[in-house]
Amino acid sequence: MREVRAASPADILALRRRLDEKTKPRGSLGRLEDLAVRVAAAGGRLDALDPVIVVVAGDHGVARQGVSAYPQEVTRQMLAAFAGGDAAVCVLARQAGADLVVVDAGVVEPVDDPSILDLRQGRGTTDFTAGPAMTRRQAEAALGAGLELADELAVDHGLVALGEMGIGNSTAAAAVAAALLECGPQMTCGRGTGLDDAGLARKVMVVEEGLRLHRPDPGDPVGVLAAVGGFELAVLAGLAIGAASHEVPVVIDGFISSTAALAAARLAPALPSRLVASHRSPEPGHTLVLGALGLEPVLDLGMRLGEGSGAALCLPLIRSSLAILEEMATFAGAGVTDAGR
Amino acid sequence: MREVRAASPADILALRRRLDEKTKPRGSLGRLEDLAVRVAAAGGRLDALDPVIVVVAGDHGVARQGVSAYPQEVTRQMLAAFAGGDAAVCVLARQAGADLVVVDAGVVEPVDDPSILDLRQGRGTTDFTAGPAMTRRQAEAALGAGLELADELAVDHGLVALGEMGIGNSTAAAAVAAALLECGPQMTCGRGTGLDDAGLARKVMVVEEGLRLHRPDPGDPVGVLAAVGGFELAVLAGLAIGAASHEVPVVIDGFISSTAALAAARLAPALPSRLVASHRSPEPGHTLVLGALGLEPVLDLGMRLGEGSGAALCLPLIRSSLAILEEMATFAGAGVTDAGR
Fold first, then answer.
1. What is d(CA A103, CA A55) in angstroms, rounded to the nearest whole number?
2. Rounded to an integer, what distance in angstroms lies between the CA atom of residue B154 and that of residue B246?
3. B236-254: per-residue pLDDT in tens?
């Protein structure tokens, strides 16, 4: 697997010191200062920031188990909507001044639109209650495709944000997270896009069944992705590692992209120091996964749409945090009296 | 006092319905949807949005009671830094694409800079432990100056955001909030820009003393502002009422601008429906004041700088929320299957 270098502790210290020289009481910009340090230490630079949001879509065999409030064809419809430019993430990306790259990692029926990047690994995954979601070779290919895409995007854009779409993918992510964190599926399963109590109970049972069937080794993240994951999860994991290997910040969105990042971090242990958690979703598994990655999210707006919507919303805050670091006056420069705290 | 019309309940309902037709599970954008409804119902329109942040500075006689970690001359230094363009709020306003208007409402020694708007009501207020902070006539003049400035700015900018600066002003705001909310000063006094335990205890005592001396009538907000307030607080209250009377959203920042808005809301009871709370500051009084205004803040980043820094950071989120409302596709328009929830 590609090497990811950890953000340097010396850099982090120097960045903190730089913020303490700014004309404001120490720490008075709160977590905006933490964000500035994290983004800058991860390689973010204001003048190199031309963010790209990569939305990766895939279908899930497990969707036929009734684990989503929406039918499977919605994945394809939303893929078309992303290409059309008026889905939520398109609107939010425009507002954030970010480019949007739409990837088909393997929906059942492809959308005929040249703006959609074809990284298809199959016609949706296999229902993981019947067999492995994909072969190990498919999982490796999806990871590799993500890595290669990151190689194309990372340096030019200076920051890569992750989004996803796929009916059933919060079930796959719940299974991956439960396997990697070695916890019960009731800890990682949530209502997704709107399950009722019966639907949530079914989702937990389905994930239990998949984990019982495959018993994936938590020490083998590729095996976990192959057994119960999804094409978009594996592509996102590859993207995260690839972008971080070029020393640019990687912004994760909600539960699904964060779980992809968790799998990636098991392959590249220094990855978390290059990650920015954009927001906290109400999915119970999200808080667990962020905790495992050691990340504190910037926004907490109860958003549970996915698509990269939270990541897009966070981009102006990221830019502003870097601007504070790079453009704000110091006590010495501005002739302002420092209380020395 | 100028009339402020409440945002229309029928508009609010229609806006909610419009969001429910968008290609996303109902409510899945969480509080971004609440924000969109609030801003649009308050009069916010994407194409009319050219936000202005008004930073109002004033000095406080009570500063000599040792209630701040910084000396009084810092107010003037920061006023000069705002005019210079590299204080925190300047950097953040640029990032948000917002204009910045810097107002001197009465610092001790004015800054000689033509870019600073002169709304001076005096050379700092009187120490309210010795006498009223200002005369009733000064308080009315400051309110009127804020109203007039809003008349100039509101329609052209489509949104007005409030910021402030003034050594000692969290003490004045704590006194105003305690008087209006009829609670003890220990509920509204916080560490401001960095008081230690002894400093905080002194601040509580100073506010107690001021309230005991003047016994301001909570039913008379102008009297409260005159007794224990500040020039910038009164100008901000006038700005809020004036902007809301033109039916544009008013974005409040931290404890001080929120307390000014609370005083304004006692004069114009429909005002809160035109307000947006940008962030929650760690000042304990801020949560009380926001609660009294019925507002839920968008950001919660532990920021306690003031200047309008939180309001500036919130502006891209406000713009994005309106873009979701105005630009995002509907289920019908996009041909996406709606699960009907």
1. 6
2. 7
3. 999 999 999 999 999 999 9
Task: Mark yes or no for CB contact A337/B77 under 8 Å.
Answer: yes
From A232, A296, A307, A326, the catalytic residue: A307
Give the integer Cα–Cα distance in Å for A147 and A265.
14
Maximum alpha-carbon separation in chain A: 70
Encode pLDDT of A133-159 as tens digits. Answer: 999 999 999 999 999 999 999 999 999
Whether residues B334 and A70 touch (CB distance < 8 A) is answered with no
pLDDT of residue B178: 98
The minimum CA-CA distance between A34 and chain B, rounded to whole Å, is: 10
Give the side-chain half-sphere CA count within 13 A for A15: 26
Band of pLDDT at residue B340, cut at 50, 70 and 90: low
In sign, the C-alpha dihedral spanning A301, A307, A313, A314 is positive
Give chain A's mean pLDDT: 97
Closest Cβ opposite residue A28 in set B95, B305, B327: B305
pLDDT in the model for residue A341: 45
Report chain A's terminal Cα–Cα distance, integer Å: 45
d(CA A102, CA A54): 6
Asked about A140 being catalytic, the answer comes back as no
Burial class (CB in 10 A: 0-12, 13-18, 19+), B212: exposed
Q: How many residues does chain A have?
A: 341
pLDDT beneath 50: ranges in chain A: 341
Per-residue pLDDT at A340: 56
pLDDT tens-digit profile of A31-72?
A: 999 999 999 999 999 999 999 999 999 999 999 999 998 999
Cβ-contact B214, B252 below 8 angstroms: no
Chain A nearest-CA distance from B291, in A, is 18
pLDDT of residue B335 exceeding 90, the answer is: no
Q: Measured between CB atoms, which of A70, A193, A316 is closest to B95?
A: A316
**Higher per-residue confidence, B336 vs B281:** B281
Rounded Cα gap, residues B148 and B302, in angstroms: 33
The enclosing H or E element of A157 equals helix A136-157
CA distance A269 to B14: 49
Question: Where are the extended beta strands (E) located within A123-197?
Answer: 160-165
Record: contact A69-B324, CB cut-off 8 A: no
B323 to chain A, minimum CA–CA distance in Å? 6
Structural contact between residues A225 and A234, judged by C-beta atoms closer than 8 angstroms: yes
* Mean pLDDT, rounded, of chain B: 97
ipTM (interface pTM): 0.97
Show the tokens assigned to B254. Answer: 């931290």
Nearest chain B residue to A79 by CA distance is: B336
**CATH code reported for the domain at B49-321:** 3.40.50.10210
Summarised one tens digit per residue, pLDDT across range B135-178 is: 999 999 999 999 999 999 999 999 999 999 999 999 999 999 99
Q: B227: which 2 tokens? A: 């007794």
- DSSP helix/strand/coil, B134: coil
Residue to substitute from A19, A31, A32, interface B, most B β-carbons within 10 A: A32
Name chain B contacts of A80, Cβ cutoff 8 Å: 334-335
Which pLDDT value is given to residue B339?
74
DSSP class of residue A250?
A: E
Question: Are the beta carbons of A31 and B303 separated by less than 8 Å?
Answer: yes
On the 0-12 / 13-18 / 19+ scale of CB atoms within 10 A, A127 is middle
